[in-house]
Amino acid sequence: MAIQQLIQILDQKVQQLYQAHLSKREEKIFAKFDRTLFSENGQNVSFYLKEINQTLDRIKTLESNDLNHYNFLAERLLAQCSVLSEALTRKNTHLTVPQTTTKQTIQKSQHSIQKSQHSIHKLPPRERLKKYYEALERLNKLYQQHKDLAQAEKNNDEKIRYTQLAESYKKRQQKCQDAIDLLEEYLVFKEELENRENTENK
Asked: Is pTM beyond 0.70 here?
């Protein structure tokens, strides 16, 4: 891949990340990041977006004939995007729903998602990807369940509540999908890099 093409792809990924989380730029992230990726923990989203942009700027201004230099920084940038997206996906809104049989089932599903997302970040990338797909499937079901409840509910206040809950799950669906996309791209990049290194070592 040509260097300019690589830079263009990375630039697009960073812009997508900015657009996806621009409204949350003042939110604090309490996840503990690897210090090789971010300089500090406990900062707001805009701080981490700024550091990601700094990595991108380093790639753009790098003057080197060694492709490994570009590969190293590109890998770091993709890892930064991936872990930030994962951290934002793990941020859960604590929502309450009335205690009926159907709604208790929904609560259990929600608790299952919260519990699994809490431990997902400790897993290797490929196992983490599998868990993301499982979480996405559960979020899809929760969204549909709340949407159905909103349509069936006769009380207007409850209808509004279920509609809002459905929308919140829809947003979390998108965040989960974004995390999946980033992680898949990161794994593809890692595989290409390993294949290139293996070819060069033969």
From this structure: no
